[in-house]
Amino acid sequence: MQVIERPLTLVDQVIAALRKEIAEGRFAPASRLPAEQELARTLGCSRPVIREAVSQLKADGILVTTKGVGAYVAANPAGSVFRLPRGDTSAKDLAQLFELRFWMETAAAEAAALRRKTADLARMRDALKRMERHAGDYPAASKADVDFHAAIAGSTQNAYLVAFSGFIEGQLLKAREMGWQNSARLAGGPRPAQQEHLRLFEAIQARDPDAARQAAAAHLLASGRRMGLDVQKLERMAHPDRP
């Protein structure tokens, strides 16, 4: 069954149009944008829509505004905020986000095995206990799952990885909860996922980076299947020696 995707809102369309104009050089860095009324007429929308789009582009570092003067393109309009289009994440977005998660978390597991501290292990143990205790409570189990992976990210002692990992986890939260629901219908129920987490924890605890990366890859591939994703490409990456 095909996933139905929500169309972009008017604000999102205006943002995309202005970004395109800026990227293609029609609005140069430090140049002034046309007046709000003119933009509304050109783009075929209302002034409140233009106002909200400009506000978001300002928050993203693309535009700067001066009271009583108007909006200008920033000197460096590349922006500093990572943002996905608003609305439901499409099936394609979900697959690509999961692929990004796979690359990031396998590397994070390896780093965590080398850098983890006693407090990091305590956070992981607590999350494992909650996952087991709430195995039939999908939102609670999913939250404990998120906390377990957040503890691994924290074990890398890299603040940027922690922040970006949190963003990815937020985007995949509904899919993760679906994975826990699906596990109830599979052989063994949630037990396989709990065993995967335990093997990953034990590798990090043992300070074995190779085993941690392998355990993370095995867990993520199985997790992707429970989410209903096609993980064949990732399997080939994880096991290039297999036919």
Automatic annotation (TrEMBL):
| UniProt cross-references to CDD domains, sorted A to Z | WHTH_GntR
Instruction: Tell me where in this chain the HTH gntR-type domain is found.
Output: 8-76
Which keywords accompany this UniProt record? DNA-binding, Transcription, Transcription regulation
Name the InterPro entries on file.
Answer: GntR_C, TF_FadR/GntR_C, Tscrpt_reg_HTH_GntR, WH-like_DNA-bd_sf, WH_DNA-bd_sf
Picking any one GO molecular function of the record gives: DNA binding
**Superkingdom of origin:** Bacteria
Q: Key word Transcription regulation present in the record?
A: yes
Name the record gives this protein: GntR family transcriptional regulator
